[in-house]
Design a protein that fits this description.
single chain, 277 residues, alpha+beta, Thymidylate Synthase, Chain A, 6-stranded mixed beta sheet, two-stranded antiparallel ribbon, globular, binds 5,10-methenyl-6,7,8-trihydrofolic acid, binds the ligand O=c1ccn([C@H]2C[C@H](O)[C@@H](COP(=O)(O)O)O2)c(=O)[nH]1, Thymidylate_synthase
Length: 277
């Protein structure tokens, strides 16, 4: 995972200091891209131990169309707690936009089901896109994430904003546009999550895996993560682990946690960092 360390080094060396919504302050660059060949192993960061359990449950939760943290909490995942209302609601975040985008005629659009059908029937299409960015439900400025969620708006606007699939030579690739990226805490989750999603979609479409391409808008290191980033840069990455997915599953909505197993994950110890809210 030298690609990830290169991003970190790039932000440390070229980042500009900016104030931000959370009041923490960041070093930030605008525009960056990484590519991961998914045939060369699973791109999970090895220079700190990453909690894959949280990543898998979060992805299954998105795919269920769920936007309440109850499912995550039942499975011991607390990464979304700080933004949810007392009832656990986050407003119409990823799950809602992916599975039930509100159409003007009152119907809802299942972008995931539609994109899979399109990959199967029109693999040459250049329109294989899923968007989480829905201006009608963006949070209102000046309100906290919890206040927005309580008012039926998104607690946070989607960070992983839009993704596009592409089929070439029987291989499925995916490119993500991430408008805002917390390089130390969020990005290791985002890389693994989209790599896994690409593998799952490839399996249900009977395609081999190609690349995951990760394109960034504002990629930043929070000022209270700089020491942790330096620690990680002194570590030597290990070879990528392997992700095994139960090959029987042919329906994107039928995966469960036990269908995934990560093999040969060798990593350096976990590094703690405070999350900016
Ligand atoms: N500032 C910020 N960064 C993010 O990455 C982020 C947000 N906010 N808000 C919405 C979601 C929530 N995400 C999160 C939230 C917490 C962790 C976190 O605390 N990770 C720890 C513990 C992992 C665990 O409990 O499984 C880590 O060391 O990776 C990671 C991603 C990603 N997103
Ligand atoms: O999947 C995610 C979700 C969130 N983030 C980070 C990026 C930013 O640091 C914050 C969101 O704050 P905004 O002010 O809305 O940009 O969360 C991430 O890296 N990955």
């Amino acid at each position: 995972m030298k690609e990830y360390l290169q991003l970190m080094r790039h932000v440390l060396e070229n980042g500009v200091e900016k104030t931000d919504r959370t009041g923490t302050g960041t070093k930030s660059v605008f525009g960056y891209q990484m590519r991961f060949d998914l045939q060369q192993g699973f791109p999970l960061v090895t220079t700190k131990k990453c909690h894959l359990r949280s990543i898998i449950h979060e992805l299954l939760w998105f795919l269920k169309g769920d936007t309440n943290i109850a499912y995550l909490n039942e499975n011991g995942v607390s990464i979304w707690d700080e933004w949810a209302t007392a009832e656990g609601d986050l407003g119409p975040v990823y799950g809602a936009q992916w599975r039930s985008w509100a159409a003007p005629n009152g119907e809802t659009i299942d972008q995931i089901a539609d994109v899979i059908e399109a990959i199967k029937t029109q693999p040459d299409s250049r329109r294989l896109i899923v968007s989480g960015w829905n201006p009608a439900v963006l949070p209102e400025a000046g309100k906290s994430p919890k206040e927005n969620a309580a008012a039926g708006r998104q607690a946070l606007p989607p960070c992983h904003t839009l993704f596009q699939f592409n089929v070439a030579n029987g291989k499925l690739s995916c490119q993500l546009y991430q408008r805002s990226a917390d390089v130390f805490l969020g990005v290791p989750f985002n890389i693994a999550s989209y790599a896994l999603l690409t593998m799952m979609v490839a399996q249900v479409c009977d395609l081999a895996v190609g690349e995951f391409i990760h394109t960034f808008g504002d990629a930043h290191l929070y000022l209270n993560h700089l020491e942790q980033a330096q620690t990680q840069l002194q570590r030597e990455p290990y070879p990528r682990p392997t992700m095994k997915i139960n090959p029987q599953v042919k329906d994107i909505f039928a995966f469960s946690f036990d269908d995934f197993s990560l093999e040969n994950y060798q990593s350096h110890p976990h590094i703690k960092a405070p999350i900016a809210i």
